[in-house]
Write a structure and sequence with these properties.
The protein has 17 helices and no strands. It is mainly alpha-helical.
Length: about 400
Amino acid sequence: MTNNPRIQILDALRGFALLGIALANFPEFSLYSFLPESVAAAMPSADADGVTRWLQLLLIDGKFYTIFSVLFGIGFSIIIGNARKRGADGMRIFYRRMLMLALFGFLHLMLIWSGDILLLYALMGMVLPAFYSRSNKTLLIWASALLILPVVCDVLIAVSGIDPSKIPYDLWWYWAGRFGICEENFHTWLRDADSYVGMSQFLVQGAFERMWEFVVSHRYFKVLGLFVLGLYIGKNGIHANIGSQMPLLKKVCKVAFCVALPLSGMYAWSVACDYPLGKIVHSIIYVFSVYPLGVGYMAALSILYLYTRNSSIWKSLALPGKMSLTTYISQSLMGVVLFYGVGFGLGCSLGLWQTELVAVGVYLLLMAFAWLWLRRFDRGPLEWLWRRVVYGK
């Protein structure tokens, strides 16, 4: 596909995923997601925000972590394959990478932003080698089972009445209460905290909130299932020879946009109306809308790439994708500087549609930074540090 040892479409897909992740995360950075309904409804932008929220649920929510998770699994297969070509111990290298990623994630979670995903990726990534030697059929069975397992868990919770998310939920509010964080000041705490001490208090309770979010949504099963799907794609070289995969890509797009997109409309309605059909039905809709549409985005971009691979847009998208760790962490730092009290304190002042414009602006700024940085260096600063620790060079 390219003379560059990196596969450009993978970097472009990572760059595209980072844009979607910014659009998904910045409503939390701006504190809009924490606003009471009455406050959000009273904002001048309320009507436009309602439309933006619906579009976000329809097209963004869950779809871009799906892409990133599948790419993670593909990356795992590439790491192991490249290590074996050099005669190195690929699994040992991968585990060192995961330990370093876990450290990045922990520091990100505790020092910058409570919405970190890196720590979960590292922990679930450590399970991935157990699937490497499995057959293609077994990989697909495992991927499907893991992605459906959250529905089974919701059924078991409804039948048994035992909710495993209660423990992290209680811990969350215990630590929030210790610092004086409550429902009344939850949405303004980070805006009003004019020192890092106040921000760090929110981050401590936020770490338990994040744990609760993962447990209540069964996110660990979802992420691991998508990792395994990515591993299947990587082991079969589908990513490295997409030119011969046009029939498969078209089938994926047909399912995604003819079936999953309408179902994603049901998903958006279910979330917006607070699950009127119940959590179990909502979980079923999630399985058949979010994952297929996320993979459909990947297929659609791959088809477009095959027809326009010489376009500069792919090089531009690939820039943040080549330094995805640096870009992801930088998005968080920009969110803190813009919206928290330790920075410009703009939190709670922007509507949702305005927040999304800011997210696009931040993404473009970081794309420009990646362009400047990669003109002089082979990899991003955090990627360099990651490689330095893992490989010792």
